[in-house]
Amino acid sequence: MKFVDEFRDAELGRALAGEILSLVESGRHYKFMEVCGGHTHSIYKYGVDDLLPANVELVHGPGCPVCVIPMGRVDDGIALAHEPGVVFTCFGDMMRVPGSNGSLLDAKAAGADVRMVYSPLDALRIARQNPDREVVFFAIGFETTAPSTALTLKRARAEGVTNFSCMCSHVTIVPPLRALLESPDLRLDGFIGPGHVSTVVGARPFEFIPADYGKPVVIAGFEPLDILQAITMILRQLGDGQCEVENQYKRVVPYEGNLRALEVMAEVFELRPHFEWRGLGFISHSGLKLSEAYAELDAEQRFSVPGVRVADPKACQCGEVLKGVIKPWECKVFGTACTPERPIGTCMVSSEGACAAYYNFGRFAREREVV
Amino acid sequence: MTTAPTSAPVCGSQHCITCGDDGDPMTVLRVDDQRGLALCGAEDGERVTVEIALVAPVAPGDRLLVHAGTAIARLEPEPA
Question: Which secondary structure element, helix H or strand E, spans residue A45, and what is its range?
């Protein structure tokens, strides 16, 4: 299959691993953050980590939208799902995220009409098919997903579907990266940039990382060779004393992004002054809400949403995992009280969550062997 | 705390579609220009209705990268 087979070639993988070995300086420890949960998933699925020298460490970033949703937001969704006449729609993994008193799946079991959808268009179709019900779509995701929600809202308005609304929890990728770079907890040497977010936003929004913080960024695809090549590109920049945004994923990502997607997002959404991220706290201008022009489709205006703030469970260390301060297996409840079947923290829910990726692919080793 | 049962639905065996960076390569099979939608075929044979506003115009045979029901980029054609 084009775009897949050639990026999983074992021989090329070994060659890239050899190149990485030749590029690292002995005695220096390299810490690179893969921003996107999709990269985390690929790294552990394909064992990319095992091909790296012991002094190259990959730190998992906050790029899983399920993992960064705070408990209070889940509780708000559940409250909406229990409103009379409401059909509450959301993506699959979101149904399993624990709130302070159960998940949306528990709410469904308790009688709320909660339905899983694969796209916002599915939610709009449910609204068309059920004109006597109020259909709410729980929108989550980064800039990759936000255009899909925006287009669906435009479509709802154009078609005159009045029983459809959106509880918008979309987030943007740059503010949490800036927050992480400002964090004293974390010393990073470079970033593996998010591939499909960049399809929408382009490479330009990441230029502040080399410009302001002196760290290289390489936007990468999701196959194992993409990730290995991105690591060689970061190491080359470091070795040559360069620092810039490079695009390893040119076959999909244009440097300027998708301008139509950016336009439709600008029309339908506006930035919230603050948005709470699980483990990272409130970050300014990091979340999206519906713009005034689309206020009539905003579920938070149509219904009464509690909007309470709930502290994460004490045992859960998702925040430290999301900041890359600890590895998933260093969390006190990893693999014992917290498993993908019975998650306590959000990082164990989504297959893109760092904890679930470690757990599902058996990456329990405390120390890696040197290749 | 109440916890989810083990049979909870997930978005897919390999990837969660809610992840901001999941994308599926698909081929356009039929285009409904009037509604701005296209019927697309996934690699596994599944057929999906896709929003094409961000990449239009498209024609049957075009390859698209699809995320959450929306084509977000064009891909190069599959070699013959």
Answer: helix A37-45
The boundaries of the domain holding residue B55 are: 24-75
CATH superfamily ID and name for A71-171+287-302: HypD, alpha/beta domain 2 (3.40.50.11740)
The pTM assigned to this predicted structure is: 0.89
The interface predicted TM-score (ipTM) is 0.85
Show Cβ contacts of residue A336 under 8 Å, excluding neighbours closer than 6 positions.
none
A119, A144, A252 member nearest B20 (Cβ): A144
B80 in contact with A at a CB cutoff of 8 Å? no
**A209 in helix, strand or coil?**
helix
What mean pLDDT comes out for the span A332-355? 82
- Comparing alpha-carbon positions, the chain B residue that sits nearest to A361 is B14
Compare all CA atoms of chain A with the CA of B43 and give the residue at the minimum distance: A1
Does any domain span residue B13? Answer: no
Identity of the residue in B15, B21, B72 whose CB atom sits nearest the CB atom of A147: B72
Report d(CA A135, CA A32) in Å as an integer: 42
SS3 B34: coil
Could you read off the pLDDT of A85-126 as tens digits, one per residue? 999 999 988 888 888 889 999 999 999 999 999 899 999 999
Among A69, A145, A247, the strongest candidate for a mutation testing the B interface, having the largest count of B CBs within 10 A, is: A145
